[in-house]
Design goal:
With 109 residues, the protein is an alpha+beta fold. The protein has one domain: 60s Ribosomal Protein L30, Chain: A (2-Layer Sandwich), CATH 3.30.1330. It has five helices and four strands. It has a four-stranded mixed sheet with strand order 1-4-2-3, with helices on both faces. Helix 1 packs across helix 4, helix 1 runs antiparallel to helix 5 and helix 2 runs parallel beside helix 3.
Length: 109
Amino acid sequence: MKTDKLLSLLGMCRKANRLSCGHDGAVGAIRSGKAKLCLLSSDSSDRLRKETERELKKKKEKIPLAVTKYSMIEIGNATGLKSAVVTVDDEGFAKAMLSLLETEEEVNG
């Protein structure tokens, strides 16, 4: 099942220390250029979504943004950290997740 695979990839990405979790971690990864993909939970606030989009627009390189169908709790169970926004800081993990997300038509960036 694709939904389980994305959560599994998030867990592996966290174990590999290639995931930045939470608002401050994600913004730091975006600003430093480490972020390759940004994911928002389904229950993230409109304010967080707008702030994240604003940070992504400041970057010259385009970083994809996707609102997933997973809640903060589901993402937290997969990663060990409850957060509404995460960035994937590894190209390989980001490409794998993007291919899964694109088949579900969730990518907005």
